[in-house]
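User: Hi! I have a protein structure encoded as tokens and I'd like to know what sequence might fold into it. I'm fairly new to this, so please keep things simple.
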């Protein structure tokens, strides 16, 4: 893609999201979700390649699932992704009270106990449920939260998205050369939030019975700092209602053949369990097993 084409795509994406954000601001959550689901169906219809990725992933993870079941689930995944996107764009200006009006929070004591140790904390989540609501709620509730993000390919879109995250009070750490900043926040007894379910090639671990590439950063940081580790998942219950649950269920499993392995096994175990309970709310359209396939492990 040429620089000129990237600029056009970037400006077009920024214009579209900005217009959508204006249309969604102040609308009832039920209406926002309906519009989001419609947007998701449209995106799915226009993204044949991504839908095929979802079919392939689902066939690997659930080999007994029929083709029709995979088609239905893929459609629901697109609808859910559209709903999350619309809900996020409509979120500027939300107060803690307005967020809690549609979000039942369970396990707040897990955050309190984690920070009471004085060694900082990692909050582990994934692209499951409404992940954007997790950091938004924590920030509005007064917890010091920094979110590690992968920059979008389009600069203007990236700026818009991050401005919405920062509006709730979250601080942004760009993924990449972020180790020093992460360690500083941990030493300051703050929470660093990480989405740990994207494709990577740091190492390879089982995930849904198949080897998948994993970024080992979370495990390495947990080992290096001795910080608390807890999970957060915000599951859509339907009817514009969510349950945001924090747990300390993630624990290291086994030993290490590479740095962070035991912790990442624990992360994978927790993530897979959560996804199996709510498969329509995970981002199957992401090519999670690409690095393993390229490495000849699948």
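Assistant: Happy to help. Inverse folding works backwards from shape to sequence: for each of the 298 positions I chose a residue that suits the local structure. Here it is:
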């Amino acid at each position: 893609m040429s620089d000129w084409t990237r600029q056009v795509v970037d400006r077009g994406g920024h214009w579209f999201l900005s217009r959508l954000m204006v249309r969604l601001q102040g609308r009832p959550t039920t209406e926002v979700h309906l519009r989001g689901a419609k947007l998701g169906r449209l995106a799915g219809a226009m993204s044949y390649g991504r839908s095929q990725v979802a079919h392939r992933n689902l066939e690997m993870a659930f080999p007994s699932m029929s083709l029709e079941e995979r088609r239905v689930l893929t459609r629901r995944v697109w609808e859910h992704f559209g709903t999350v996107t619309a809900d996020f764009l409509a979120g500027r200006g939300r107060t803690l009270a307005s967020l809690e009006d549609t979000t039942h929070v369970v396990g707040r004591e897990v955050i309190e106990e984690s920070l009471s140790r004085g060694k900082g904390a990692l909050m582990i989540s994934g692209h499951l449920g409404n992940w954007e609501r997790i950091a938004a709620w924590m920030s509005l509730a007064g917890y010091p939260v920094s979110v590690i993000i992968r920059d979008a390919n389009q600069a203007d879109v990236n700026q818009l998205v991050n401005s919405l995250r920062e509006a709730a009070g979250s601080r942004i750490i760009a993924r990449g050369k972020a180790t020093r900043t992460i360690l500083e926040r941990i030493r300051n007894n703050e929470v660093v939030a990480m989405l740990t379910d994207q494709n990577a090639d740091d190492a390879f671990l089982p995930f849904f019975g198949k080897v998948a590439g994993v970024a080992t950063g979370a495990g390495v940081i947990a080992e290096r700092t001795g910080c608390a580790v807890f999970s957060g998942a915000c599951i859509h219950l339907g009817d514009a209602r969510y349950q945001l649950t924090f747990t300390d269920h993630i624990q290291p499993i086994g030993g290490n053949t590479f740095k962070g392995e035991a912790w990442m096994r624990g992360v994978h175990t927790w993530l897979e369990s959560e996804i199996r309970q709510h498969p329509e709310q995970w981002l199957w359209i992401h090519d999670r097993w690409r690095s393993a396939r390229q490495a000849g492990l699948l």
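A useful reference point when you look it over: Strands lie at 103-106, 121-125, 145-149, 171-174, 191-195, 203-207, 210-214, 228-238, 241-247. Feel free to ask if any position seems puzzling.
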